[in-house]
Amino acid sequence: MDTFNIEDYPHQRLNPLTGDWVLVSPHRAKRPWQGQIEKPADHNRPSFDPTCYLCPRNGRAGGKINPDYKGTFVFTNDFSALLSDTPYGEVSEGGLFRAKSESGICKVICFSENHGLTIPEMKVSDIQKVVDVWCDQFAELGASKNIGYVQIFENKGAIMGCSNPHPHGQIWSSSSIPVEPAKESKTQKAYFEKNGSTLLGDYLKAELEKKERLVVQNNHFVALVPFWATWPFETMIISRRAVQNILELTNDEKTALADIYKKLTIKYDNLFEVSFAYSAGLHQAPTDGKNYPEWHLHMHFYPPLLRSATVKKFMVGYEMLAMPQRDITPEQAAKRLCDLPDIHYKKRES
Ligand code: H2U
Ligand code: ZN
Question: Fewer CB in 10 Å around end: N or C, the chain?
Fold first, then answer.
C-alpha cells in the first residue's frame, strides 16, 4: 500500500462552515456506468406564456393580477410559509415536545418580464437589476420588526421542484436565524475570534494560491468548488472583500456579482448543454440588529445533476442514514467546469 493521499483513497473532508463532514470516494469515479445518457429536448420557451402566473398582466393563483412590468417585479408570496402576524409563543412539555412560534415575510421576485430567459441568458445590466432588488428587499425586510434573518434564494428547474420556468427567485425572511445560517454564524464567529480575520477570506486566499478548485473569477468575486462540496458540481461565489451583507457592496461590486452569477451559470448550462437546475442562495449576516464582523458574504449553488442532462445525484441510502458521499472529487468537478467554454452553448450553435 502506498501512503495515504486524497487523490486515490477514500477519505472524509470537513466543511468548516457547518462543521459537517463529507465522504469522498475518488476510486469509485473510475467504475463503469450503465445508466442511460440522453439529452432531453431543450425547448426554447416563448417570451410570454398566457398560462404563466409570473408573466406580466397575467392572473396569479390568489386572484391578483400582475402589472405590466418590465425588468424585475416583486410581490408577497400568495402562499407564504411564514406570516407576519403569528402571535409569539412557546410550547414545551418536558424536553421532548418543544415548539416555538415563527413569524416572517415571504416574497417572490421575477427576474425579467421575459418568460423565456434564464440568468445565464440575461444581460449583466439586467441581472444587476436583480441584485439591486435583493439590496432593496434585504434593507426593507431586514429593518422590519421581528426579522432576524433574510434568506434570498433561487430554485431553478423542475428537477429541483421549481414550479415555473419563468425566471424568478424568492426571499423568505424570518424572526429567528434558520438552521444553516446559524451553523455558519457560529463557525465564522469562532474563527474570527481566534484569527482576527474572516474564515472565508482566509479560505479564499488559500484557494487562489492552490488554483485547484477555481471555476471563474472577476475583479471582486471568485466562484470555486469548495474543498468540502457534497453535491457533484456544487460551487460557491465568495466576495474578495469581506463584507457582512450585500448592502456593503459598492456599485462596481454589485455589477461584478451580476457578472459572476452569469459567468458561473453559463458554465453550468454548458456542462451538459441543458438549462442547469440548482438551488442557489446568498448567505449573509443576520438582521437582528447585532454587529457581525465575522460574517463574509457568499452564495451557494447546489445543483443535483451528476452525469448527464438527466442523471442526477441522489442523496439517499448512506447519505440519508450516515453522511453525504461523493465519487467525482471537487478537484475533478472544478476542472471540468473551468475547462468549459465561456460562451453559452445556445449562442455557439446559432
Ligand atoms: P418555486 O420558486 O419553487 O417555483 O416557487 C414559486 C413560489 O411562487 C411558491 O412559493 C408562489 C408559490 O407559493 N406562488 C405565488 O405566490 N402565487 C402564485 O400565483 C403561484 C405561486
Ligand atoms: Zn412567464
Answer: N
Q: Using most ligand atoms within 8 A of CB, pick from 74, 78, 162 the residue to mutate for ligand 1.
A: 78
What are the tens digits of pLDDT across the range 42-76? 668 899 999 999 999 999 998 999 999 999 999 99
Ligand 1 atom with least separation from CA of 59: 19
CA 152 to centroid of ligand 1, rounded, Å = 14
CA 128 to CA 114: how far, in whole Å?
Answer: 16
Cα→Cα distances 303→106, 309, 343, Å: 23, 12, 20
Rounded alpha-carbon distances, angstroms, from residue 8 to 1, 27, 264, 330: 11, 6, 28, 13
Residue 174 confidence (pLDDT) above 90: yes
Strands 278-283, 298-302: pairing kind: antiparallel
**pLDDT tens track for 212-224:** 999 999 999 999 9
- Tell me the H-state helices in the chain: 124-142, 179-195, 199-210, 251-272, 318-321, 330-339, 345-349
Instruction: Establish whether residue 170 lines the binding site of ligand 1, counting it when its CB lies within 6 angstroms of any ligand atom.
Output: yes
Residues taking part in catalysis: 168
Report pTM.
0.96
106 CA to middle of ligand 1, Å? 10
**Of 43, 46, 48, 170, residue with least CA distance to 111:** 170
Q: How far apart are the first and last CA of the chain?
A: 52
- Residue 66 in contact with ligand 1 by CB distance below 6 A: no
